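Reopening this ticket.

The earlier resolution said the output was attached, but the attachment link was broken on my side. Pasting everything inline this time so it's all in one place.
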Amino acid sequence: MTREEFIEMIDTGGDIMFDCDGRSYTILCWADGGPDIAEQVTEDNHRCFPDGEALVNGYIVNGKPLEECIGQIRITFCS
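Inline output:
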Protein backbone atom coordinates (compact mmCIF):
# COMPACT_ATOMS: atom_id res chain seq x y z
CA MET A 1 0.00 0.00 0.00
CA THR A 2 1.29 3.46 -0.87
CA ARG A 3 1.10 6.54 1.32
CA GLU A 4 -1.53 8.01 -1.02
CA GLU A 5 -3.65 4.84 -0.89
CA PHE A 6 -3.59 4.87 2.92
CA ILE A 7 -4.57 8.56 3.04
CA GLU A 8 -7.45 7.91 0.61
CA MET A 9 -8.57 4.96 2.74
CA ILE A 10 -8.66 7.25 5.80
CA ASP A 11 -10.45 10.10 3.99
CA THR A 12 -13.15 7.84 2.50
CA GLY A 13 -13.38 5.02 5.06
CA GLY A 14 -15.38 4.09 8.09
CA ASP A 15 -13.23 2.16 10.57
CA ILE A 16 -9.68 0.97 9.94
CA MET A 17 -7.77 -1.40 12.18
CA PHE A 18 -4.12 -2.10 11.53
CA ASP A 19 -0.94 -3.46 13.06
CA CYS A 20 2.33 -1.59 12.85
CA ASP A 21 5.65 -2.08 14.60
CA GLY A 22 4.27 -4.56 17.13
CA ARG A 23 1.19 -2.54 18.10
CA SER A 24 -2.43 -2.48 16.98
CA TYR A 25 -4.33 0.72 16.12
CA THR A 26 -7.85 1.81 15.24
CA ILE A 27 -8.78 4.82 13.10
CA LEU A 28 -12.37 6.05 13.28
CA CYS A 29 -12.51 7.91 9.99
CA TRP A 30 -16.03 9.29 10.59
CA ALA A 31 -15.34 11.06 13.91
CA ASP A 32 -16.75 14.59 14.23
CA GLY A 33 -13.35 16.26 14.66
CA GLY A 34 -11.79 14.33 11.79
CA PRO A 35 -10.01 10.98 11.78
CA ASP A 36 -9.50 9.74 15.33
CA ILE A 37 -6.68 7.27 16.06
CA ALA A 38 -5.58 5.36 19.16
CA GLU A 39 -3.89 2.12 20.11
CA GLN A 40 -6.33 -0.76 20.37
CA VAL A 41 -7.20 -2.16 23.80
CA THR A 42 -5.36 0.51 25.84
CA GLU A 43 -6.60 3.53 23.85
CA ASP A 44 -3.17 5.08 24.50
CA ASN A 45 -1.73 7.70 22.15
CA HIS A 46 -5.18 9.02 21.24
CA ARG A 47 -5.16 11.85 18.69
CA CYS A 48 -7.60 13.51 16.31
CA PHE A 49 -6.62 15.07 12.97
CA PRO A 50 -8.44 17.21 10.40
CA ASP A 51 -7.83 14.71 7.57
CA GLY A 52 -5.91 11.63 6.47
CA GLU A 53 -2.85 13.52 5.31
CA ALA A 54 -2.47 15.32 8.65
CA LEU A 55 -2.87 11.98 10.47
CA VAL A 56 -0.23 10.22 8.36
CA ASN A 57 2.16 13.18 8.74
CA GLY A 58 1.55 13.86 12.43
CA TYR A 59 0.76 10.62 14.25
CA ILE A 60 3.78 9.10 16.01
CA VAL A 61 4.39 5.33 16.17
CA ASN A 62 7.32 4.34 18.40
CA GLY A 63 9.00 7.72 17.96
CA LYS A 64 8.51 7.95 14.15
CA PRO A 65 5.82 9.66 12.08
CA LEU A 66 3.32 7.14 10.74
CA GLU A 67 4.31 8.10 7.18
CA GLU A 68 7.75 6.58 7.79
CA CYS A 69 6.08 3.30 8.81
CA ILE A 70 3.72 2.85 5.84
CA GLY A 71 5.63 -0.22 4.63
CA GLN A 72 5.06 -1.94 8.01
CA ILE A 73 1.29 -1.39 8.14
CA ARG A 74 -0.85 -4.51 7.96
CA ILE A 75 -4.57 -3.72 7.65
CA THR A 76 -6.60 -6.11 9.80
CA PHE A 77 -10.06 -4.57 9.23
CA CYS A 78 -11.54 -1.88 7.00
CA SER A 79 -15.18 -0.91 6.57
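Reporter confirms the inline version is readable. The radius of gyration is 11 Å. Residues 36 and 66 are 14 Å apart (CA to CA).
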